């Protein structure tokens, strides 16, 4: 059994913990923006392949007292880096956190890099090159007060970058947050799903992937652990085959997205095609004022602009009022959710929320508002 740490967006720790347990993780312990868990190598690979709500899976290799740059360098040099890295491998160091004397993440990362390559030089006369974009080994350094945790990053790039979405709208929702919102809304494949302001399609696509039991990692070209010295290629291929064979062929209920913008709908369709579900999801060009419920009941989720990034908050009041009117008049029998970061705009909906769920969209404090439409 190895110990792992999954990094997650603020506020999503309980949802990520539940997901890890479903994937077979042991000793699951959420903490601020992360979840500790334990398991074998197969679990490490499986979490990277299947997790929908986490960013990265870190493998801690050392924790130590670290009040200063000098102590950081000294402790990093004590690790036998040849077990993880050869001079012909490339390297990158990522740093989070700080303390009084290690208060610049770039400098902290540089100290760790120097300690590693100095050790390599003294042993072989050669050293690893730095490759920030696509390293063979990505090391995570986390400084908290006078402690440092050094970890290997098994994911490489963040897992929210599924690989299906080169096409994005102006204010895209991260795939991990979209997947978490589906969980918060208690949506499952037996319920029709609609996003009436779908933009580049993140919510309907994540709903489609979940409903068809498609592992989000299937669209990625690479994970960090591919270039590790202990990479078990046969085990990975076995898990990959298992994932490919477990996908479902058909949806139980309609999953749809609509938007008035033809160009973003073109992006949405292209994104859905890239993950092989373009023919499963319905995307329609529809102005909100013309929107009709496709079925008698279902779950509606939308992420309208709220003045922080898209549009001006004062001009968005009419949009929120229309959302409330359309829900009330045409979606009886449905449950609707609106993600918003603006309390004043939320009041314009004119409906009483049955639940208010705190959510962070990046660093922005938002609320997921639930409306029971009778």
TrEMBL record:
PROSITE patterns: N6_MTASE, THUMP, UPF0020. The keyword Methyltransferase applies. InterPro entries: DNA_methylase_N6_adenine_CS, RlmKL-like_Mtase, RlmKL-like_Mtase_CS, RlmL_1st, SAM-dependent_MTases_sf, THUMP_dom. Keywords: Methyltransferase, RNA-binding, Transferase. The keyword Cell division does not apply. SMART domains: THUMP (SM00981). GO terms for molecular function: RNA binding; rRNA (guanine-N2-)-methyltransferase activity; rRNA (guanine-N7-)-methyltransferase activity. It comes from the Bacteria. Residues 43-154 form the THUMP domain. SUPFAM superfamilies: S-adenosyl-L-methionine-dependent methyltransferases. It holds the Pfam family UPF0020. This is rRNA (Guanine-N(2)-)-methyltransferase. It comes from Crinalium epipsammum PCC 9333.
